[in-house]
Predict the structure.
Amino acid sequence: MEKEKFYLTTAIAYTSKTPHIGNTYEIVLSDAVARYNRFIGKDVYFLTGTDEHGQKIQEIAEAAGISPQQHVDKIAGEIRAIADMLNVSYDGFIRTTDDYHVKAVQGIFKKLYEQGDIYKGEYEGWYCTPCESFWTKTQLKDGCCPDCGRPVQNTKEEAYFFKMSKYQKQLEDYIEQNPNFIQPEARKNEMLGNFIKPGLQDLCVSRTSFSWGIPVDFDEGHVVYVWIDALSNYITALGYTVDEKGELYKKYWPADVHIIGKDILRFHTIYWPIMLMALGEPLPKQVFGHPWMLFGEEKMSKSRGNVIYAEDLVRHFGVDAVRYYMLHEMPFAADGTITYETFIARYNSDLANTLGNLVTRTVAMVNKYFDGVIADGGTGGDYDDDLKTTAVSAMAAIEEKMSVLRIADSLDEIRKVINRANKYIDETTPWLLAKDDSARARLGTVLYNLIETIRIIASLLSSYMPETSSKIAALIGADDLSYESATVFGVTKAGTRVGEAEVLFARIDAEKKLAELAAEMAEPEEPEIVPYKDNIEFEEWEKLDIRVGKVLECEPVKKSKKLLRFVLEVGAERRQILSGISQFYSPAELIGKNVVFIANLKPRKMMGLESCGMILSAESDGRLTALTTLGDIPSGAEVV
């Protein structure tokens, strides 16, 4: 019989910087959902990846003196390494710089244009670079971006627009007729009430003020803006093009669920469905907007100094402890929180004291009382039935919770089994049974029941803590952790040998560990030294004509966020040079200053203006400083 298909995706991670633990939560959550659906017998395809275009990335790369492609290659590699470190079982990893995606997006854009859903116009409004979002003046909050609170820039440029309003009624009807399309419920009400019903504005879908994006292949100078580029990854990764639908697309689309952060819900429940409607393709079955993981009560931010990285947590506590905390401490609809203090407390209470202690002492008792061999479980007694019922009924309760993506609640169902097994030990007192020769058969049954319960626990944990699940199975000699076996008591064979008891989760001395972490974070970072370039011959250096020029004029270049136009006095000559340092200087700061520039570079056109040379700057921590002279020196002087 053919397996039921299940396709889920994360939002693709933006490659501006290395993600912190708050950004990483989503991929672990999605991995638990993917593993669970494989566990219950579905044919799963799990997609994640990276979003690699945009003005923000171009500016970061230029400030660092590298190409945007070099920058995204580095960050995409780090993002994938984090996913691998956290034992994420993705089936596909898409990068929006992949050639097949670029071609597919160009085809989508052209199709939408040719059928009249996209038209050319001019955009004027307020733009937030970090969020890559346009806003009207009335949408601003205290003059800043309503999403992130950062300053915005007034922007005017030629652009293509998508006719959102054309599909508004169709989208409203779809959401009303498919009540599970947007989850949780409160998010659906927010999208309908705050964004859709008040009226959809046409969406800017191309840019001309930067070049790092997918080119609009029929209009030079335009690049496809983030929405059509990034959102379409969910189908292009499956081999979709407007001319041909790949085998993976035919097999898995529509997606069963897009798992995304609540802050990008608008794009996935308005822009994306309308794009699909315009393309004539089915809509995803569900979009789940998960809450944020906060540091204490605040959203994580480097500027606040409250960022925790997955790599640091894994190094100190292990992969599965990190997975457990993220999955268990995030409520269904409310924000979760993480601090080192709360992490250690949960680690000690749930993993060391409860789960780890149950496994270790049970295996130790089998070794101590039966030389490591699991005895027959045929001698019944008090408390057995309640333990067995708790263990075998957990799967049904988990299925109920996981069907509506209540991950933390499903883990609580496993905790109930663990707690019941620990209570069973206290009730049956195997250490006392061991002192009575006549109770040896009963002791064997008690330990059999505990081992079998632990086997079921290992089976249930496989979706959430796969490494721990495998370790437990190896310790107790279990070779069947299947879904079917999780609902049956008695799978373990008498005579199976257990391993030597080992500590799965060593209890942490909170005070000592917090002091260690504080000392680690207090260590001053070594300044990053940019590697030297390859040696050159002196004759090559002599080819450079480096001069001093006095800034006579300096002004912003129209339609550019970064370029300043300089007019330099170079002896008796006047020379025009364009330099991308507007975010670091105002023109008034530079007029009258001497700057150092390369005079014999070939002229080149930038934003329609000719630039005859390159002003030299030094870069550190993303800050550029123009090179000047200490003393008064005539303009045109040669640098030797």
The CA atoms of residues 190 and 247 lie 36 Å apart.
